[in-house]
Design brief:
Elements (H helix, E strand, L loop, with lengths): L1 H6 L4 E2 L6 E2 L2 H9 L5 H22 L4 H8 L4 H11 L10 H7 L17 H14 L14 H8 L10 H13 L5 H15 L12 H13 L4 H20 L3 H4 L1 H32 L1
Antiparallel strand pairs: 1-2
Helix pairs in contact: 2-3, 7-8, 9-10, 10-12, 12-14
């Protein structure tokens, strides 16, 4: 009976040792986070559960178009590793950048070569970053957009973002990396940075909490750029996590109770929008199947 119970468990990935565990909370308490508080451990466990759910829902499917984009990249191995890690998978024993660069030029199949557009290596690298940062989980859509999502995002300026060294974003990044032990925190911070730049290109601030119309416009622009609903939900999750950091892990409530209340209301607003988007995500998946 014990063996059967163990086999039915959902193994979760430990973000510290990078190994799956039958009981992550017990493992963290005894080994990898034994000096951390119960609250911190529980938050890591909840994050691992969410990651596992996302892998089951979206992480196992690669569209042919997305794989083609990866293989056409100047460094396909590095790009593929980034994509796998973005889908909450682990690639151990990755070589140093210098070694990886030496092997990245190896053709996919013997006797074949990859044809790349006539553009500079810098442009190819920037395009690669834009695609991987723009869409976390690629979904094939029924609608055929006249241009790729990447080009539309660039044309609309939706890849532009504030410096991640700004105190608002730097503190958030440290919270994700050190407190929550989130290995892929940079993507979350960049999502927030792009949204904040869209609302106010001058300087990142929490004033976006009072800009509901601009928030609606931002997600409409993402839709017009061809980003999937799942990607838009990921943006919403990033914003909710950013606001949770400010409402729970900072002194915002003591320093500015009015702004703290605005943040709480904004989280509720995002939750309602996220619920509506979840139905559209299911519809996308049905159409794709």
């Amino acid at each position: 009976m014990a063996s059967k119970a163990t086999s039915n468990r959902h193994f979760l990935l430990c973000p510290v040792c990078k190994k799956t565990q039958a009981s992550l909370s017990v493992h963290l308490t005894r080994v990898c986070m034994k000096r951390s508080s119960k609250e911190a451990i529980q938050e890591v466990v909840e994050k691992a559960k969410q990651d596992a759910l996302e892998v089951l829902q979206w992480g196992r499917v690669f569209s042919y178009r997305h794989l083609r984009d990866i293989m056409d990249d100047a460094n396909p191995m590095s790009r593929m590793i980034q994509e796998l890690e973005r889908r909450h998978m682990v690639v151990p024993d990755t070589p140093s950048p210098a070694v990886a660069a030496q092997t990245s030029s190896v053709p996919v199949m013997a006797g074949t070569t990859v044809q790349r557009p006539e553009s500079s290596a810098t442009e190819q690298s920037e395009d690669a970053v834009s695609v991987s940062n723009g869409e976390i989980f690629q979904v094939t859509r029924e609608v055929q957009w006249p241009q790729t999502s990447r080009h539309m995002m660039q044309e609309k300026g939706l890849y532009r973002k504030h410096s991640l060294d700004h105190p608002l974003l730097k503190g958030f990044a440290a919270y994700l990396e050190k407190d929550l032990l989130n290995e892929n925190f940079k993507q979350t911070v960049e999502n927030v940075s792009r949204f904040m730049f869209f609302v106010n290109p001058e300087e990142p601030s929490l004033e976006f909490l009072r800009e509901r119309e601009k928030t609606k416009l931002f997600f409409r622009e993402l839709t017009e750029a061809g980003l999937s609903r799942q990607t838009q939900v990921n943006y919403m999750k990033s914003l909710k996590r950013f606001l949770k950091y400010h409402t729970v892990a900072t002194d915002l409530r003591r320093d500015n109770i009015a702004l703290w209340n605005e943040a709480m209301f904004f989280v509720e607003y995002l939750g309602s929008v996220q619920q509506s988007s979840a139905k559209l995500v299911s519809k996308e998946m049905t159409q794709r199947r």
